[in-house]
Design goal:
Helix content is 40%, strand content 16%. The longest helix has 17 residues, at 164-180. Helix 7 links the parallel strand 8 and strand 9 (217-221). It has two domains: 5-161 and 338-349, Rossmann fold (3-Layer(aba) Sandwich), CATH 3.40.50.2000; 164-334, Glycogen Phosphorylase B (Rossmann fold). Helix 2 packs parallel to helix 3 (87-96), helix 7 (198-211) crosses helix 11 and helix 9 (266-273) crosses helix 12 (320-334). The chain has 350 residues and is α/β, with parallel strands linked by helices. It is built from 13 helices and 13 strands. The chain has helices at 16-28, 64-74, 87-96, 114-126, 139-147, 164-180, 198-211, 246-249, 266-273, 287-290, 305-316, 320-334, 339-349, and strands at residues 5-10, 31-37, 54-58, 78-82, 102-105, 133-135, 155-156, 185-189, 217-221, 234-236, 254-257, 278-281, 297-300. It is globular, with a radius of gyration of 21 Å. The protein has a seven-stranded parallel sheet, sandwiched between helices.
Length: 350
């Protein structure tokens, strides 16, 4: 009889794309998945359906002693910990270090500031005595993991993947329609916070309309603490569950991600998988995989309204055929990471 593996995730906030990866893991391998997670974020109130092979536990229901008891009962084959902010999670990993794989996940960029150099210096005493491996989204996080003392063989890429099949199905429903009539609408999906750059996007779009009025619109999906700017060609749609994206995707043309800082940004992967041309700031981590300048979109300088305006204007002036070709290339790039690859990578670590 094939051995069953018990996979433990010590997590913060879960999202649908993470559960899609876990579902693929459960589908392809003989595993039992257990996720200890924080409450859902009020600005991103995802609704999760029950998962047959995935067990969810509320972090707020457990103190350190009950966490120890729960993990011991589950008899882990591997423990994956989301960052190092939760001290109790670190205590769990320290207990199982060298007994079972203990994997640190991090999406922080290496910036070479004083705080990160201190973390690198202290890592042997606070991280490398608790974690055998690091699992990161891309190259810029890999650099940080190396600074923290993880060797090449101890680092795995591809920690984030969108639900590729879901967004592929949306793409298949809208691709023919867009070849016939490409929607002249930019779309933003994210929280209404300053660091998301959405206020810069509103400013850039309004200035473009004032300078050269045209038929393009801007649709924004999200909520947050920024007051939505009012403009006849800007539509605020509120928070939208991923399963309801089709209604918006079929009416929008170009995805914009203006973040001032974005460790990765799975939503860029999602819109690439739906076959969208992309506009993203140079601070979005996921551009290393899913955006190739002039091939499927443009990169602009984060926080620079003029840079954003320039690239939006350039996109608006492209012919329909070119916009659709960009979307096709986005779709191809989206295949670089899938839940299957994610599941295979994890099992290689056990």
């Amino acid at each position: 009889m094939q051995q069953q593996y018990n996979i433990i995730f010590l997590y913060t906030e879960i999202a649908p794309y993470f559960l899609a990866c876990c579902n693929k893991l459960a589908e392809d391998y003989n595993v039992s998945i257990h996720i200890i997670r924080y409450p859902v974020n009020n600005e991103a109130p995802f609704v999760f359906s029950s998962q047959q092979k995935i067990n969810l536990y509320n972090r707020k229901d457990h103190q350190l002693n009950s966490l120890f008891s729960l993990i011991e009962k589950l008899n882990p084959s591997v423990i994956i910990c989301s960052g190092w902010i939760d001290k109790d999670y670190l205590s769990i990993c320290k207990k199982y270090y060298k007994k079972t794989p203990t994997i640190l996940t991090l999406d922080t960029h290496w910036r070479g500031n004083l705080k990160q150099y201190v973390a690198s210096f202290l890592s042997p005493f606070i991280l490398k005595n608790k974690f055998s491996h690091a699992w990161v989204p891309g190259a810029i996080q890999k650099k940080y993991a190396k600074k923290l003392g993880f060797k090449e063989a101890e680092i795995t890429l591809g920690f984030y993947s969108c639900d590729i099949e879901h967004f592929k199905s949306i793409r298949n429903k809208i691709v023919v329609q867009k070849k016939q009539s490409f929607p002249k609408r930019f779309i933003f999906v994210g929280r209404y916070y300053g660091f998301k750059g959405v206020d810069k996007l509103w400013q850039a779009f309004i200035e473009l309309q004032n300078e050269n009025p045209n038929e393009w619109e801007l649709w924004c999906l999200g909520t947050g603490n920024l007051q939505p700017v009012q403009h006849p060609k800007i539509k605020h749609c509120g928070f939208v569950q991923p399963e309801n994206f089709l209604a918006y995707a079929q009416q929008a043309g170009v995805f914009v991600m203006p973040s001032l800082f974005e460790p990765w940004g799975v939503v860029l992967h999602e819109f690439a998988a739906m076959g969208f041309p992309l506009l993203a700031s140079d601070k979005v981590g996921a551009i290393e995989c899913f955006l190739e300048g002039n091939k499927n979109g443009f990169v602009f300088k984060a926080g620079d309204v003029n840079s954003l305006k320039e690239k939006m204007k350039e996109m608006m002036q492209l012919p329909t055929e070119q916009l659709n070709l960009m979307g096709e290339y986005s779709y191809l790039l989206a295949q670089k990471l899938t839940p299957k690859m994610w599941a295979d990578n994890l099992m290689k670590l056990i």
